[in-house]
Amino acid sequence: MAKLIYNLFLFLYSTGIRIVSLWNPKAKKWLEGRRNIFATINSRFTTHHSRTVWMHCASLGEFEQGRPVLESLKQQDASLTIVLTFFSPSGYEVMKDYKGADHVFYLPMDNIFSAKKFIDAINPTLVLWVKYEYWFYYLQELKRRNIPVLLVSGVFRKSQPFFKWYGGIWKKMLENFDHLFVQNDASEKLLQTIGVVENVSISGDTRFDRVIEIAKQSLNAEIITSFCAGSTIIVAGSTWEDDEIILAAYGDETNHQQKIIVVPHELDKAHLDNVKKMFKKSVCYTEVESDAALLNAISGYNTLIIDTIGMLSRLYNYGHINYIGGGFTNDGIHNILEAAVWGKPVIIGENYEKYFEAVDLVECAAAESIGDVVELKEVIDNWLTDTIAYNESAAAAKEYVYAKAGATKKIIEYIYIKRLLTN
Q1: Interval 277-323: pLDDT, tens
Q2: Cα–Cα distance between 106 and 19 in angstroms, integer?
Q3: For residue range 164-195, what is the model confidence (pLDDT) as tens digits?
């Protein structure tokens, strides 16, 4: 019954994607990226490499979690062949030219034939799956071939299928992993309730290692520096419409001198046009890039809209206070650690409870949750007028992130102790 439900899900998902692709650009990219995928893969793998590490990620966020492990392995052994796969266009389209991998592909849709063809083609020595996404036929085929599979930075919640009455096939997927590295004690205990005990350990979250590494890299951008000069800056990252409405209302206030850098989560033209209308005296980053006169006049703008990819994680260093978007969506906030690592207080929306790091940062007063523009103003005014409170929150943010580093080292040590890369 469980397998029937799973196969029905696969059918409905594939069918739904085809229908939605008629009007949705992301769904269209999902389909186009998988067209003739095996011809593409086979053309890249005309001969088998001696040792190949395959890392699969659902999307960009999961890649950032797995990246420290992948890059550490490559740093220790440059002869490894790295294969990186994504399920989502938002991961693949951003990282398709990632230099740390030898090959980057979309993962073909899960079924018994695709799993065999894909694994035949890349012939992995070790497989790393990151945090979320469990595809039955791929995991079953890897187990059948005795290819070691590790889960990196796994996190489990009661709402997941593993812990439901219909979750038999999902529980079976977990049996195909050689080891499950989970983020926290709660995940380990949940797995124990379904009999998954022996091959589980708490490693922590590799995102802490990743954001610490990012914090070593400065962003030297003349446009940003010119915009920020002499002003108190609020960086608002990965914002959705609800975030932007609140931030724009705050920006309309006349009794403060702060400037805002807004980095919308969605960068399509329609959304960017709407954001620009919301924020008075705003300018887009790419507009300034292409017009020297705007660069000279940039100090006169109150809001800089970042309409390009790849800057956000280092932009947070420019913020006196940082705002993380997504807290008014069903999924919740985006990566709060990217901001906290710089030692700056953080503001988030109300939906953050399923992210343990956000809960921790709120509890240690490094972050504040707000529900509307009035609360946003109160929090910002408090931090800007109370130097002691500001410094305590800033220090707490940085100390929290650095205290939780080390997950990558634990996983790498396991790989080498178990000799998983030795043929």
Answers
A1: 999 889 999 999 998 889 889 988 999 999 998 899 999 999 999 99
A2: 20
A3: 888 889 999 999 999 999 999 999 999 999 99
Rounded Cα distance, 106 and 93, in Å: 10
Fold of 33-204+406-417: Rossmann fold (3.40.50)
Query: Per-domain residue ranges for the chain?
Result: 33-204+406-417, 219-403
pLDDT above 90: residue 67 = yes
Confidence of residue 423 (pLDDT cuts 50, 70, 90): low
Domain 219-403 adopts which CATH fold? Rossmann fold (3.40.50)
Cβ contacts of 306-313, under 8 Å, gap ≥ 24: 306/261, 306/262, 306/263, 306/264, 307/264, 307/267, 307/272, 308/267, 309/94, 309/267, 310/94, 311/219, 311/221, 311/263, 312/237, 312/238, 312/263, 312/338, 313/211, 313/214, 313/338
**398: which 2 tokens?**
């940085």
Average pLDDT over residues 48-75: 92
Element counts in the chain: helices (H) and strands (E): 21, 14
The sign of the CA dihedral 240, 243, 249, 250 is: negative
- Mean pLDDT confidence for 17-27: 90
User: How are beta strands 126-130 and 149-154 bridged, if at all?
Assistant: parallel
Would you give the DSSP letter of residue 163? G
Neighbours of 314 (CB within 10 A): 18
Q: Over 80: is that where the pLDDT of 139 sits?
A: yes
3-state DSSP assignment of residue 183: coil
